[in-house]
Amino acid sequence: MTENTNQSLVQIGRSEKFNARLGMGGSFYGLDHASAQGEADILAAMETALDKGITHFDTASGYGNGYSERLIGRFMAADSSRRERIFLASKFASDDISAQAMIKAIDASRDRLQTDMIDLYYIHWPRTGKDLRPLMEGLETARQQGKIQAIGVSNFSVEQMAQLGEVGRIDAHQLGYNLLWRYDEADIIPYCVENNISVVVYSALAHGILAGKYARELDFVKGDQRWSITLFRDSVWPRIYEALEDFKALAEQTGYPLTQLAIQWLLHQRGITSVLVGAKNKAQALANVQALQADIPDSVFNELTALSDQVSQYIPDEGNPFGYHP
Ligand SMILES: NC(=O)c1ccc[n+]([C@@H]2O[C@H](COP(=O)([O-])OP(=O)(O)OC[C@H]3O[C@@H](n4cnc5c(N)ncnc54)[C@H](OP(=O)(O)O)[C@@H]3O)[C@@H](O)[C@H]2O)c1
After folding, report:
1. C-alpha–C-alpha distance, residues 256 and 208, integer Å
2. Is 256 marked active-site?
3. pLDDT of the chain along its 326 residues, tens only?
């Protein structure tokens, strides 16, 4: 049974489908893919999110090497009403940047997702110094064939977007944005606003930092992907940890959990269409849904921005939150 939340409806591209402002992330970061319990928890999170009106589901062919798409495909196939209620987004990245590679990737995603049409399909990452217009041509062909409805890019610069715009229409840009990472406010978000490109945000909780889940001493195992994230660097993390204490104190004063403040702050920023949050179990999904129902005064958003401004000076701009430039 679908419950009403107070979220407003949005549209990405020319798609007829409307989707909610909060999206369910599908990277299942840190999940042991062999764990039956982990999988059951994620299916429960998806069910809860959808039943509470979170209809935007985001995945990628690269998440778990196709695992995430297959799991969401199984989730939708288990109840025939689910596919029509979901605004489905996926992505692809590869070193083969031909139009054929893109069309092949879209077909493989459709197979794994058990659907004829994917609402939004992104180029997941640019390739430094490469001309990706052939990938865009592949996306436009797939759109004409009815295999996808809207086209997105993710982690692109303004120049890279402008180049693709010569051969097709970009409907959405997915980028990292949160209280601890705001570099795209300078040029990319304004460019999207000007060009009527929807902005979908990832890392809303800054890799879980804004959920307050890390101690002062980080203890990720060797090889954990998080070591490569700028915010966890030795030279940056102590400042983040200090700032987090201030964010937590503000959350306590207001009576709202910091996760809700962080999500709502994003939804109040200029040009933001939809915010993705990864939830790995029912409780997290429920907590994130509640963020949409919170009625937070503007003065609190101003205080959040002020705290964010203070810590931002210690965070180096590495182009994206992962400092990853394939
Ligand atoms: N386009 C891209 O390049 C890109 C990059 C990254 C992500 N994404 C997309 O964005 C989605 C969001 O992922 P993200 O990695 O950016 O995640 P995030 O929103 O920054 O953090 C997600 C993590 O926060 C924790 N969490 C979520 N809700 C919580 C709650 N209510 N209370 C406490 N902890 C909570 C969970 O941590 P635990 O795991 O510890 O439970 C969860 O895994 C991904 O699933 C993916 O779809 C896209």
Report:
1. 17
2. no
3. 333 344 567 888 877 666 678 999 998 766 666 678 889 999 999 999 999 989 999 999 999 999 999 999 999 999 999 999 999 999 999 899 999 999 999 999 999 999 999 999 999 999 999 999 999 999 999 999 999 999 999 999 999 999 999 999 999 999 999 999 999 999 999 999 999 999 999 999 999 999 998 999 999 988 888 888 999 999 999 999 999 999 999 999 999 999 999 999 999 999 999 999 988 899 999 988 888 888 899 999 999 999 999 999 999 999 898 888 99
Can you give the residue ranges of every domain in the chain?
Answer: 9-208+261-297
In ligand 1, the atom with minimum distance to the C-alpha of 206 is: 20
Q: What is the Å distance from ligand 1's center to 280 Cα? A: 9
Q: Cβ(207) to ligand 1 under 6 A? A: yes
DSSP for 81-115? HHHHH-EEEEEE--S--SHHHHHHHHHHHHHHHT-
How much is the pTM? Answer: 0.94
Inter-CA distances, 40 with 44, 50, 72, Å: 6, 15, 12
Atom number in ligand 1 closest to CA 122: 1
Going from the Cα of 260 to the center of ligand 1, the distance in angstroms, rounded, reads 14
**What distance in Å separates the CA atoms of residue 34 and residue 28, rounded to the nearest whole number?**
12
Instruction: Classify domain 9-208+261-297 at the CATH topology level.
Output: TIM Barrel (3.20.20)
